[in-house]
Amino acid sequence: MKRPLSVAVAILSGLLILLGYFLPENFSALRSLQTLLLGWAALVAAAAVLVGIINLVFGVHWKRLRAAQNKDYYSPFLILAFLVTAGLGLAFGPDHPQFQQVVLSIQAPVETSLLAMLAVSLVFAAFRLFRQRRGWIGWAFILSAVFFIAASSVVLLGDPALAPLQVLYQLFPAAGARGLLIGIALGSLTAGLRVLFGADRPYSG
Amino acid sequence: MDANTLIGLGFTLLAAALILLFWLRRNKQARPILRPIRAIQGMRRAVGQAVEAGTRLHLSAGRGSLLSPDAASALVSLSVLERIALLSSVSDLPPLATSGDPAVAILTQDTLRGAYRSVNALELYSLERGQLTGLSPFSYAAGTIPVIRNQQVSASILVGHFGVEVGLIADASRQEDHFTLGASDSLTAQAALFAITPDTLIGEELYALPAYTGSNPVHSASLKAQDVLRWLVIFLLFAGAVLGILGVL
C-alpha cells in the first residue's frame, strides 16, 4: 500500500507543477498550489544538505577513521575542517565578513589550483586524443583548434577583412551546440514524462 | 496563452502520446533493436568483469539539482544505478555512488536500498554506498577522486550534470586504468569528457542509457518517441529555413 501511495503523490505533484507552467496566470489557485509545492521541495532540499553532510562526516569519514584496516588518513582533516567551519559559522553567522574571508582564503586557492591542474590535464588529453584517434576526427580536431585559436587571437580579432571569417567561426559552433541542445531538451522531456507516468521511480516508497 | 507556451504544451502532449503509443504497440516477445553504441557495450563488459573479478563499480551521479532543469540527467543516473546494482548484486563488492547534490545523494541511497530489497540482498546495502562528496564543483571532484583511487574500483560511470570539473574525475579514473564512461547534459562536460575518455556519450545519447541497460519497456518506447520528435524538429527547422528563404516567413 505504501508504494502505490508514494507513486500517486509523486505523479499528482508533478502534474500540478507542469500544469502551472502551461495554464494562464488567472488560474490563481493552481499558481498558489504550485508555489506551495515548490516551497516544500526547497525546504526538503535544504534539509537534505544537512543529512548529506552528516552522512559524509559521520557516516563515511568517521567510520574510515575507526576502521581496523585501510584507515583513511585524510579523514581526520576533513572532520576537523568541518567542525571548525561549522563552529565558527554558528558562532559568528555565515554572513560575517571575517568568517567569509577565512573560508574564501582557503577555498579560492585550492579551487584555483584544481582548475590549473585541470587545464594541464586537458592539454595532455587533447594530445592523447590526436595520437589515439588519428583518423578524420583527429585531423578535424587539430584543424578546428588551430582555426579557432587563430581566429579569436588578439592580432586577428579586430581585422575588418576577417569579419566574414569571424562570422563563420561563430556560426559553426553555435549550430553544432544548438543541435546537441535540441537533442538534450527532447531527452529531458521524455525522461521527465517517464517519471510522470510512474515508469521511472527514483524513490523506493 | 502565448505562442511559445502553446508550442511547449503541444510538444509535451505529443511526446506523452508517442511514449504511450509505442509502449502499447511493443512486441512483448522480441527484444528492441538498438543501434550499437561502443561506450555502452564497453560499460556492459566492465560491469561483467567487475562482478567476475570482485571489484567495485563507481557511479558518479553529477551535481545536478532536482529543482533545476538538470534534474532529468540525475534521473537517468538513478535509473542506471538501479540496473548496475541489480546486475552486480552477486559481486563481492557492491557498487558505490557519489554525487554533488544532497537530494540526489539521498536518492542514490534509496535507489540502492530498493534494488537490493527487490533481490532479497538488503545486507549489501549500507549508507556509505551513496555519498555526497562535495557541494561546489571542485570540492565534488576533489571528494570523488579518492573514492576512485582507494575503494577497489575497476570502472567509473559518470552520468549526470557536470561542469568542466568532470575532467579531473575522468582523468583520475583514466590514470588508474579503469573503464570510464562519460555522459552529461552539459556541453562543457561533454567536451572535457570527449578529450579524456573514448567512451563518451554525445548529445542525447545520455537519455538512451536506460533503454540500453534494458530495465523497462517504457524506456525503449521513450527512445522511439525521442527519435520521432527529433525528426519532427529537423523537418520544422528545414521548413522554416525554406520558407524564410522564399520570403514567406
Q: How would you portray this structure in words?
A:
The complex is a heterodimer of chains A (205) and B (249). The radius of gyration of chain A is 26 Å and the shape is extended. In chain A, helix 4 (97-132) packs across helix 5 (136-151). Chain A has a domain at 1-92. The longest helix of chain A has 39 residues, at 28-66. Chain A contains seven helices and no strands. Chain A has helices at residues 2-22, 28-66, 75-92, 97-132, 136-151, 154-157, 163-196. Chain A is an all-alpha fold and 205 residues long. By secondary structure, chain B is an alpha/beta fold. Chain B has helices at residues 3-24, 38-53, 71-87, 102-118, 137-150, 166-175, 187-196, 205-213, 217-245; strands at 56-62, 96-99, 130-132, 153-161, 179-184, 200-201. The two termini of chain B are 22 Å apart. Chain B is built from nine helices and six strands. In chain B, strands 3-2-1-4-5-6 form a six-stranded parallel sheet, with helices on both faces. Chain B has one domain (37-215): Rossmann fold. The radius of gyration of chain B is 19 Å and the shape is globular. In chain B, helix 6 runs parallel beside helix 7 (187-196). At the A-B interface, helix 1, helix 2, helix 4 and helix 7 of A face helix 1, helix 3, helix 4, helix 5 and helix 6 of B.
